[in-house]
Amino acid sequence: MTPTDAAPDLPAALARHRVPPAPRYRDDACGRPGAAPRAVLAPRSAGDCAEILAHLGAHGLACVVQGGRTGLSGGARVAPGEIVVSTERLDAPARIDPLAATLTAGAGVTLAAAQAAAGEAGLFLAADLGARGSATLGGMAATNAGGPLALRFGTFRHQILGLEGVLADGTIVRRLGGMMKDNSGYDLGQLLIGSEGTLGIVTALVLRLHPAPAARRVALCALADVGAALALLALLRAGLGPALQACELILEPLLGATCRSQRLAPPFAAPAGAALLVEVAETGPGAAGVRLEEMLAGALGDGLIRDAVLSASEADCRRLWALREGCSHHLMQLGGTTGLDIALPLAAIPPFLAAAAAFLGEGAGPLVFGHLGDGNLHFVLPGRHGPATLAPLFTILARHGGVITAEHGVGLDKVAYLPLCRGAEELSAMARLKAAFDPGWILNPGRVVPAPGGTPRGR
Ligand SMILES: Cc1cc2nc3c(=O)[nH]c(=O)nc-3n(C[C@H](O)[C@H](O)[C@H](O)COP(=O)(O)OP(=O)(O)OC[C@H]3O[C@@H](n4cnc5c(N)ncnc54)[C@H](O)[C@@H]3O)c2cc1C
């Protein structure tokens, strides 16, 4: 079958943007099968995107935007009748401005490529996540990605100094000057950040770079429980200030299971209820590594921590991070799970975990890890769960002041639960914003804001 046969009503003018609709375009990293796309279009520039969206709007055709498809909320999953707009050819390589300390790149460039370009210039891109080899800068902007470094540097939004995007009617908004200060009217780029492709397609970005860290040290601490991990976090924050770069929690039984499935050596002599991975880094000759060592010795003496492994080399740092990243790999291999990505005020984390355990009952065995410093937990339930479990669980979460997604976004999968953490007035304002930017409802319909009629509008 030729591409034209697969979508006979696709305007002929769009034929030059088409690529073969391989199965990989159906879903993101959630692993739930999406529909076969009506067509896959891969624009090479903002102008191409404008042409595509103008045609889709004119013909009432809905599309879903795809970057690296590493998303975990179903945002890039294809709904029946949708056309995929892939950013894979928006791959203008990263250009570094050493004076301004900025990086400019196409939205389809991967995080790993951008990190490498910054590193080659002796600078540092303060964003990281486990899917760095495939996740794109555009996808990270669209989801306002977090990751471990958000504790020190903020989310991806805080790394973006300029953005080029295309609105649903084909309007190109271009602010690629890379200026730190620009109050000349509404910041339209900031509206696109975190909008999960519902308000426009991000086509290029200017990112802020930082001085490269001279050295880092990583420690993995064994603790009795999450309460002790929070006490250690408070201690380290006060003692280390901005040198504290990451603070990652892993609760048992996930650490043990990860070590077994990923063939990693158990870090502690005796199992611990909780493990906290701590990273410190400084740009110049500093004493943060020594200070960390002293503070952990004090915490051991006081009985706050039970054991600790401290890096002595960069290879040690990588080995300790492999345990944390191994948690994601273990869960992916396990499959058939329901992963929640929640955030809570720090003080509410222990009571929430207790209330959730009481609700789920014996044997439910949630697997919990995440970015403790940001109050962001990945709370993973074995098995596939629907509203009968998730609605009451999210209600408990909301009662503890939590939100249903901290970094992965609402996508298709969490739209129904959004009213549990956002008020009716806020939801109505979001719907009005969506309608103003995309009156034809052609861009990522049904993600974040329910589509009119309740279902994604692929026709
Ligand atoms: C192993 C693993 C670890 C992860 N760790 C983290 C983590 O620590 N922190 C974190 O935040 N996330 C994490 N993620 C989730 C994921 O990597 C991020 O959400 C990432 O930002 C998605 O980028 P992507 O290019 O893959 O986007 P996709 O999955 O392709 O798309 C995600 C959403 O953004 C939209 N979109 C994509 N590109 C654009 C664009 N150019 N313009 C407009 N809309 C667009 C899509 O329509 C969709 O709604 C992890 C995922 C995996 C598999």
Structure overview:
The protein is α+β, with helices and mostly antiparallel strands and 459 residues long. The chain folds into 4 domains: 3-86, Uridine Diphospho-n-acetylenolpyruvylglucosamine Reductase, domain 2 (2-Layer Sandwich); 95-211, 2-Layer Sandwich (Uridine Diphospho-n-acetylenolpyruvylglucosamine Reductase, domain 3), CATH 3.30.465; 213-334, 2-Layer Sandwich (Alpha-Beta Plaits), CATH 3.30.70; 335-421, Alpha-Beta Plaits. Helices cover 31% and strands 20% of the residues. The chain has 13 helices and 18 strands. It has a 7-stranded antiparallel β-sheet with strand order 15-12-14-13-17-18-16, with helices on both faces. Strand 8 and strand 9 form a beta hairpin. The protein is globular and about 70 Å long. The model is unreliable at 1-6 (pLDDT under 50). Flavin-adenine dinucleotide binds at residues 28-29, 64-72, 75-76, 87, 107, 129-131, 135-136, 138-140, 142-143, 145-147, 196-197, 201-202, 328, 407-408, 411, 444, 447.
Strand-helix topology:
Blueprint lengths: L2 H4 L11 E2 L20 E2 L4 H14 L3 E4 L16 E4 L8 E3 L4 E5 L4 H10 L2 E2 L12 H7 L6 H4 L6 E8 L4 E4 L12 H5 L7 E9 L1 E2 L3 E9 L2 H15 L3 E8 L2 H8 L12 E9 L5 H14 L5 E4 L3 H21 L2 E7 L5 H12 L6 E5 L4 E7 L4 H13 L24 H14 L22
Parallel strand pairs: 2-4, 3-4
Antiparallel strand pairs: 1-2, 5-6, 6-10, 7-11, 8-9, 8-10, 12-14, 12-15, 13-14, 13-17, 16-18, 17-18
Helix pairs in contact: 7-9, 8-10, 11-12
